[in-house]
Specification:
This protein is α/β, with parallel strands linked by helices. It has ten helices and eleven strands. The two termini are 28 Å apart.
């Protein structure tokens, strides 16, 4: 298992071995919700189009790919000096308010990601990145993970774009594989993580995504999408084949929800 340099709520690291069984061969992997990049790191497509609406995330991946030396240098400085709450909040404020060079902005994003609570990436429209300090004894600097990510991105010519999922999907053509991993459809009675960058990602957005995936299928794309088991009940993705797998949800531990839950995998490939 190749690990992302980022901690990430909803990461597919825990189900990657199962997910690989659903991902078909194709010309290129297209991800409209790239997240931590775990699927990218653990697949072997010739080309990649990796998108997200979060500009800080996409900037980070671009800097890892094209300016790793300076990102790592400044990142290590922040890690060496910053594992205390007052320093964390100082860097968070500077990240939100400052006009920084791209490599430094990316280094600060990595610092916040590895020091904040539980790998959350949450924003408010007023204050920007607003996840609290994580209180870890010794946050890990992911030097090897950064190197691996950079090497693979350069070797495959991976393209990173900041855009809405619909724009990303519209760029996919016949023979491409689209893997969509949007925020979960809310599970009834549970505390649900349904934010996508700074906006809610509710049922209307899932309906729009389902329609875009259907259009892509008609163009000859192969479709794989992940979501909570609750997505089956909404029937939003009913035009696709569906199977379930077991997934770990570490964010749920504090809410009393079982940390293992069913996850739905929706597919439309040449064989179904």
């Amino acid at each position: 298992m190749n690990r992302s340099p980022l901690k990430w709520a909803g990461s597919k690291a825990g189900v990657m071995d199962q997910l690989l069984n659903f991902l078909p061969s194709g010309n290129r992997l297209v991800e409209p919700f790239v997240g931590s990049g775990t699927v990218f790191l653990n697949t072997d497509y010739k080309n990649y189009l990796l998108c997200d609406i979060n500009p800080d995330l996409i900037l980070f991946f671009i800097m890892v790919t094209h300016d790793l030396k300076r990102l790592e240098e400044h990142g290590r400085e922040l890690f060496n000096d910053g594992n205390k709450p007052e320093r964390f909040y100082e860097i968070r404020q500077a990240f939100n308010n400052g006009n920084h060079p791209d490599y430094l902005k990316a280094a600060m994003f990595l610092y916040l990601n590895r020091h904040c609570y539980n790998g959350l990436c949450r924003y408010s429209e007023k204050s920007g990145f607003n996840v609290p300090y994580g209180k870890y004894k010794q946050p890990y600097f992911p030097g090897q993970e950064l190197k691996l990510f950079s090497e693979k991105a350069n070797d495959t010519g991976a393209v990173f774009l900041c855009c809405d999922f619909s724009e990303c999907i519209e760029m996919a053509g016949g023979g491409d594989v689209i893997y969509a991993d949007p925020p979960y459809v809310p599970i009834s009675g549970a505390t649900s993580f349904t934010k996508y960058y700074s906006s809610e990602f509710g049922l209307p957005e899932h309906e729009r995504l389902s329609n875009e995936l259907s259009f892509a299928k008609a163009r000859g794309c192969r479709i794989v999408a992940s979501n909570s088991e609750a997505a089956i009940k909404t029937k939003i993705y009913s035009q696709f084949e569906c199977e379930t797998i077991n997934a770990n949800r570490s964010i749920s531990r504090a809410t009393g929800v079982d940390k293992t839950a069913k996850e739905a995998i929706f597919t439309a490939t040449e064989n179904n």
